[in-house]
Each structure stands twice: as structure tokens, then as C-alpha cells.
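Notebook entry, structure prediction.
Reason for the run: the old model in the group folder had no record of what sequence produced it. Starting over properly, with the input documented here first.
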Amino acid sequence: MNIDNLIKSKYETLTKSEKKVAQYVTNNKKSVIYGTMETIKKDIAVGDATIVRFSKKLGFSGFNDLKIDLAKDELTKNNIDSSHDYYDDIADHLMSTIKDTASLIDPNDLEKAIELISNCRKLYLFGVGHSGETALDFSKMLLRIGLIVHAETDSHFQAQMASMLSKDDLVIGISLSGETKDTYTSLKMAKENGAKVISITNNNLSSIAQISDITLRTSVEEFLNGGSLAGQLSQLYLCEVLIHGYEKQNKIDTVSIREKALRAIMKKRIK
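New structure, fully documented this time:
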């Protein structure tokens, strides 16, 4: 039974507050999937206990179980056959990911982010899982323009680094959901030590966005489909935008830098 029918079947057994949650879930499925209980609490003024009770009355073990079921419904809807070949659908989706992410760029925030990168003493990149892989790729992309930075994907090392940062340092945190606990904890510690924080995330209301000085938004929302190519592509697109902005603002001679890198690599070839 899908969630709408399940809510209808249980609606008369709900309390007044629980009915508010039911109406919110029915009308705001994506907000529930990609948000937190805090999102719902702010929008309809109910407590954690009400949301948990509502979830259990529907037969779920708790709020996260409800979110997973909602995500499964959404993923199933998105996978319905179309008249197009699947490879065309994938290409269209990836191209729209770039365009949609570009449409979310705030030029003022982008300019401020580039200024922070240009003026920091040390730059660190924090991410875990697939976002950690994006952080590693970003560090290699920055090397192309002569910036040597440290991308850390281990939460223990992130915490150690964050504890030693100061007001002259910058951390870029990468998390699609903005709710990755390890990344949030490390960024919060860095912030408390005076470092500036830029986040690359989908949700401006997420925990990570809330402690960031600047947030650059991706267009991709993920929950059950975590780690998709579209999600990583949206992150890498913003990384590339930051790099080109840095080159432009600092008048970097990228040709000279890349020539040096190419000559070094060519020495590694057999012939």
C-alpha cells in the first residue's frame, strides 16, 4: 500500500496534531524525504514525539523507516518506462543536472566563496563516502591550477585537523544531504576554532548549511538513490566553477602550470 492510501486508512485514528503531520507528509513528500524532523517541526509546530507516534501508527518503526518507504515510492515512480531509450534518458538527466545546478548559483555567494579560497592560509576539503570521493577529485582539480590542498575523507583525521585550524583557514565541506554526521561534526569544530566554512550541499536548511559561511547548492536530491552519478556530477560541476572563478580572479597562468605538470608526467612514460 502506498503512503497516501496508508494515511487515508489510518486518518480517523490520528490525533489532531498527528493529522497535521499526515497532511504535511501527503503534500510535501520531497521535503520529508530529504529533510529532517526539524523541517517538519518548523513548518507545522509539532514535537518529535508526535512525528514518531504518527510514523508508528502507520506501521513504521520510526520516522526514518517512514522516510525510506516514501523514497521507495518516489524511486519507483521515476523508474516508470518511457518511450525513450534508457541511455537517452540518462544523458538527458545528467545534462539537466548541470543546468539545474547552474540555475541555483548565487553570483554574490560564488564571488565570496572564491575570495575566501583566494585569501585563506590553508584550505581543507572534508567529505565522506561518495562526497569524500568528490573531495579527492576536487583536490586533484585544484592541483591543475597550482593549489595544493588536503582532502580528508577519514572522520578521525578530519576532527584532528579541525581542532588545529584558525581564523585564517578555510574548510570546504561536501555533502549532498547536508546532514552527514561525521562531516557536520568536523565542520562545526573547524567553525568553533575560527575557520571559515563553505558547504556544497543540496539543502540550504540542512545542518551543515546552517553552520556554513557560504553554501553552494547542488540540484540533485538523493536519499534511497545515494551515490548516483548525477549527485557526484552536480558536486563536481560546482568544484569546476570555483576553479575557473579562482583562475579568473587571481589571473592564474594556467597554461604555464599545466605545461610543468605535463612535462613531469611525460617523464613517467616508458617512451
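Summary: The longest strand covers residues 196-201.
The old model has been moved to the deprecated folder.
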